[in-house]
TrEMBL record:
Keyword Transcription regulation belongs to the record: yes
Name under which the protein is recorded: HTH arsR-type domain-containing protein
PROSITE patterns: HTH_ARSR_2
Source lineage: Bacteria, Bacillati, Actinomycetota, Actinomycetes, Micrococcales
Residue ranges annotated for the HTH arsR-type domain, each copy included: 1-84
Source species of the chain: Microbacterium murale
KW Cell membrane (keyword) present: no
Record-linked Pfam families: HTH_20 (PF12840)
Key words, A-Z: DNA-binding, Transcription, Transcription regulation
Gene3D superfamilies: Winged helix-like DNA-binding domain superfamily/Winged helix DNA-binding domain
Disordered: annotated segments: 92-118
């Protein structure tokens, strides 16, 4: 996955796909690179599980695989960050009805001064 993310063209393709499905030709038209070069980039992204494709007549439409990037990066970080491993174990043992102290505010007044999160 990190190899797929290493190239700026592939990162831009992912950025372009975040707003929805695009045909291969539409993706290629956004770059100065040749069609075969963009096809190779799309193949790498597909191989990493970051995009999916479907055929519509003679067109190939690409879309992001929902949540794949976040889950993969989260899994990677949790394996290399000891603090994250400890937090994950604590959350596994905590009953589902108990809010996470790191993410849940103590009261509604705690959220009044916080900036909106995107």
């Amino acid at each position: 996955m990190f190899e797929a993310l290493a190239h700026p063209t592939r990162r831009q393709i992912l950025q372009d796909l975040k707003d929805g499905e695009l045909a291969a030709g539409e993706i290629a038209a956004r770059f100065a690179a040749t069609g075969p070069t963009i096809s190779r980039h799309l193949r790498v992204l597909r191989g990493a599980g970051l995009v999916s494709e479907r055929r519509d007549g003679n067109r190939i439409l690409y879309s992001l695989v929902s949540g794949r990037l976040a889950l993969s990066v989260g899994d990677f970080l949790s394996t290399v960050c000891p603090e994250q491993i400890v937090l994950r174990e604590v959350r596994k043992r905590r009953p589902a009805s108990v809010p996470d102290a790191e993410t849940a505010p103590a009261s509604l007044s705690d959220t009044a001064d916080e900036p909106a999160r995107a």
